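Next up, sample data:
>
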Amino acid sequence: MGLTGDVAEWTAQTSIGDAPAAVVDAAKSAIIDTVAVILAGASEPVTRIVAEVVAEEGASPIADRLGARLRTSMDGAAFVNGVSGHALDYDDVSPSMIGHPSVVILPAALAAAQGAGASGRRLLEAYVLGVEVMTKLGRAMGNAHYRIGWHATSTLGTLGAAMAAGKLFGLEPEALQHALAIAVSEASGSRQNFGTMTKPFHPGHAARCGVLAARLARKGMTGDTAILEAPLGYFAMFSHGEAATDGIRDTLGNPYDVLSPGMNVKRYPCCYATHRAADAVLDLTRAHELRAGDVEGAEVVVPAGGLAAVTRDRPRTGLEGKFSLPYVVAAAVLDGRVTLDTFTDKMVQRPEAQTLLRAVRPVEDPSIPVVFNAIEEGYVVVKIRRRGGAVLERRVDYPRGAHQNPLSRDELHAKFRDCARRVLSPAQSERALALLTSLEDLPRLDELVAALIPVGSDAGRF
């Protein structure tokens, strides 16, 4: 059996009951974080645009948008929730791949679970397996495809979403192979669109395509059953000869990626490549009572390749600011914090931010050791030059929220409440959080989904 067959067989035959109990706990934490950022992004312009287009299709009401009232098809719900979860770039990232697993896999799994009338435990299982396929294929892929411009969240996410949805539909291994084949022909996403509305489109598109691939395979649509390993297959197209695919089957569930290395949860709603610098600047401003007027210039030293995702040195919009290392540094100095409010157009365009960000110089240092992922590995050093000549320096190896430096349970729940307050009442938020923490005990998902949709005559529509 080839790699495609191995992945399909493992997905079909694996049960979360066979996994360590810690896997369930880790998955629930990741799901709580992902639901939080879906709710926070529900009112963003890109989410509203996508929701309006989906609503215009008039699909059968099977699954729900979170954070607003829209019941639509499984594909449509996965699409909107995936976009919403990435609209603020506040969702988790994986050390095993250069991308965001949960924001693709959970929307796909939740939509398919609603369609299948599944329990909370089955949702957890599909989420874990989808993440596992996505991240282990990502680890094997190498980073050539990311380096030349593909967005791994979307290109790999489509495959993981197909496996998560296929698991919930009860597909046999052969049908899962066909779902993978269909998903490969849907996989796409250009990094040139970072800093625009189309970046959050990517995970929504991947979630929608994964659900659609599984639905088509369930109906009998076929594709090449060696699609991953074939000469013109997935790895040949996307890895440019750098993939290390031997032994992938043995790595699946050994250990589960959601547990080890685990997910990196974002403390700040911006590109993860900025987080170590943000931590360093905030530490320096607090320790030295630093003010913008004290700063003559700053240098941010990152590993070689560490600037690949932060492509907007001179941002003019909130979206561009999320992918601007100079702006994040400037905002951290100016405000002493980096929050959801940091990334509005008005905040990015303020004259003092535009002036200060021009004094920030990002530098790649090839001597900083990196094996696979320059955004995750090595370290970042921030040097701030004060007026008068003194230089303040801070090195950060692991940002707050990283799997090596995780948020506490209380901090994670505080992030959930802060995100949820945008669309839910405090009582609804607490009810939703209680249901999410006992997800494996829910016989169906109706009560949970209802708790994640605002109450009221026109609450949160589009």
In short: Residues 3-262 form a domain with the 2-methylcitrate dehydratase PrpD fold (CATH 1.10.4100.10). The first strand starts at residue 63 and ends at 64. The chain has two domains: 3-262, 272-396.
